Amino acid sequence: MKRVGRWTWMLLTLLLLLCTTAFAKTIECGSIELEQPVEVALESYDTFQYTLTAPIDGTRVKVEWLSDNKHLVRLYMNGEQVSTTGGFYTLNKENTVKVYPASSDLIPLTVRFALHEHKNDEQEPNDVIPTELHDGDSVKFVLDNDDTDRFTITTEKPGQDIALTFSGFNYADRTAFSLIWNRDWEIKKNGTVFLHAGKPGTYQFSLYKSGSGEISRSMEIHLLDGDEHELNDTKETATPLPIGTDAAFSIGGIGDADWFSFEAVPEEGQSKFHTLRLLNVEPGKTEGITYEVYAPDGTVVASKVIYPRHSRILSCSQQGQYTIKLSAKGSNIQRVPLRIRVEEGGDDPYESNDTWLDAAYIEPGQLISHVLSSGDTDWFCLTVPEDHMTLHVSSDCAGIQAMVYTGQALVEYGDKAKSVWHEDSFGRKSASNLYWKFEEKGLYYIELTGGSSERICSTTISLIPPEEIEDNDVWYHATPLYEDFTQAFDISALNDMDWFRFTVPEGDQKVLLLNVSKTDTGKKGDPVYFKLYREAYFDNQDDGSLYEFDIESSTSKTTENYAWDLEPGTYYLLAKYNKSFDFFTRVQKLNICYKLVSHLNNNTIATASPLKEREWQDVWRQDGYFSIGEHKADEVVQIQRDEGGNEPKSNIYVYDTDGKSIASSGYASFSFRIPADGVYYFSVPASIKSSENAPMRTTRVRYYTHNDKIGAAESIAMRPNESVFLDLWFSPEISSRLEVESEDEALTYDLKTGYLTAPNTPEGSTDLVFSNGYPEGDEKRVEAVTHVIWSENPLSDISISNAPQSLSVGNSVQLEAAVTPDDYIGRVSWESSDTSVLRVLSNGKVVAVGQGEAVITASVGECTSSVTITVTGEQPGESGLTGVSLDRYTLTLYAGEEAEQLTATLKPEGTEATIRWTSSNQTAATVSQDGKVTPLSAGVTVVTAAAGDYRASSIVTVQPERVRVTGIRFDEPTHTLMMGSTVTLQPIIAPDDATVKNLTWVSSDEQTATVSRTGIVTALSVGETTITATTVDGGYSAEIKIIVTAAAQLGDVNGDGYIDAADALLCLRASVGLITLTPEQEAAADVNHDGLIDAGDAILILRYDARLIPSLN
Q: Across residues 759-778, what is the average pLDDT?
């Protein structure tokens, strides 16, 4: 007989498979109902299809398996496969349920299941058809397993807001959910969220929670009326805003935008200034507001995110309607009452500040609205109160450039002074986003140029405080790094640099594992450059750095890992901005951590490192090889990999003596059977990660042999929501059928990571069952059971061991926590009472960083244990002087007057040292050795206080002898203004020839009227306020009461709210020159609109008062 060839058998097998598939068919089996058991007898390899009619579209059901052979069939609901553990599914109105055998060799078989309606709250089912709500309703809702709850409410008035008040968040349950309204908004705490409805009608919103688990919350709903300008949500419906008048409004809920418009009429080819003001009606309440101002042609002329109050000068060069859009920033809307106002005019309040001697003094962080025309220069100065602060200048005008000088340089060299960055660059720097770090505190000057006549500048000059580890800008002030401890630091400017140092101890050569991460995110770029040096470099024994690298920002956290072989010794690491890039967009935030590990040359099978059975091994080299020694044929080897709860990204490969791959896996735990006697190896792809207050973590691996079909830890005690690595082992024949079951669905085990996660409930217990997938009672079934207990307080006792009584600065110790019961495998929390003395990691490792005493506490729930450790040893610079400061950095005196006291303070407080005082120009002023400055003649001098190697200086300007002020008064005790008008107050200062007539101005109620630094009073709302003018020389004060009345009414000349004979009398007195009317009074008096104030106007007023005419219009 002719033998059938191999290819013939393959073709026959393929033909059989095709025939099986071709003859499989779908059998219609009628309808099924909810809550009724369904029994399906599968006698052929066909699909059995049922129909299910849901009571309501969107009904959610839970599948219950009534037979143990559920893993032998496939069940689909509307095309979605049903898990063997059940689960939740959302129904349509009409639904299809399909059942078929998992394999043709399993038939015949019978499977039973039931579908139960799942209602987790009273509103269900509302996943598709929303629940209708009404004003004042309060509902309790539950969200679980990707559940969505939909609601509707009907508004009746234009511009109403929907107020949703959520409650139910607490310390033990902070799980967030999403509110869907124009987009997803995360709700993560108790409080009220406002939604803007717009036109009257029915509106829908949804609540959604992703993932497993269940939360219960409450919600109250109320309808709130919008402001009087609604609906003004679009440019076309903008509310007209007459120049000089207020409009009260409030930003409504999410989605609201309020539009206003005003008319600008500049002369042809000219620009006209207007001032935009945004004010709080209720001081103390803030609302983040985004505003945009549009010109008539639609271009944006101004935009800003502000927290009222706020003023902005607008340059209007187009004739027509300008529109203003105001909306809330983010979702934290409080519906704060606000007012908006546009006034004609707008001067630069800082002029004249065209030279450094006339520089305008500013407070850091204030918004400067100033006019910087072509060819103009604006000078500002500010006090930098601390060493190592960073200057940040930002301006919305492109092309504006800055130069920065120290006050001392300007005093000594004047116009020839060099900028603070002259050693780095002589040119001007863009002021749109400038960062520069000051090494010393003092008085600094900023020169701004490059503006244009058509642009109003909004500039902010801020100071960024130094980070804790400053000053480490030079190698001999390097910040010490401690093994496993993450050090956070900033590169705050182009010229900032940070130095770090660490020591490789004596002994064998070590490998430095360095983890550097960049946590500032945004546009890719902003590289930070690193160089590693030996200490010998600074003794001119090395030519350069050992290693160099850089790290850039990205849209997410960027991490780089490095591994270098290092000999014992001290090393220095420099971090600085890469100056080959001419831009610096933001403060660079970084973390750095290192770990020293033994040198392993195991990058080939021939050099594989031996492993000890059951001992964890840290893996840091990519594709490092390890030997598991010699094994006999048919032995089972289990390999486990711990990535700290992260899913492995690459496979582990197992090799025999000849280097042939015999097994591989990307799971946390897998097994293989030894094919033949011999030595075996495996390679592991490594990962390195670090985080604050946790030791640097590398990949861990271990192996062991066993003879079990399946096994797992017998019991585990955990805390709620805690994740731990679980010891699980099994034979290779079971791996493909391995199943995990738990009576509590919130208790999960991830086969990929090997981590077990407890439910987020206060306490509980259940069994976690691992099996080969066969049903209970089947003789083929094998299983292992882990009893899991979780509790907020799982321990009865905890104690700390290995704790020394003292440590010296720079030394570390590994503390151990002994817990009862001993089956608790979760994490112990560690805390230091003073991190400036002792720092502690999450694994109990403690390092001494400063002298003193601190308490280290280990805790799990309410169970705690503490030890006290004293840190000894001198810290660099602590025993001596660290700095000196002055109470004032600028001082103006007058020749011939009394001496002024300057006060110097030494750092740290309590330090004793001799202070030496000097004056750079003793012709102008002298200084005594107790800090008293005596002015002699006109000029400028720098007074310096020096102690040890530290100094601080004050710029003293001596003016010529002056005529002193002796008093100040106003001509009138009160002045009346109509709302929207202004007046310039001009008090009388005595004597007339006083040298310094500068004044400071204060309004007692800025909601009623404001006063500028030049005495211009602007009336804002009806009421009274007191304006106080105080002389800079002598501190003399005078007050005037400002009475603000409503806008002028035609005929009401005296503004008392009545039109009567008193107003007519004012017209007659003004017509014969006995009195002078204000512009507002003239507008009210000219009732016949002939441009004159005379008897004709008085007669019309009297006739109206006598009811002889109906109106004056």
A: 91
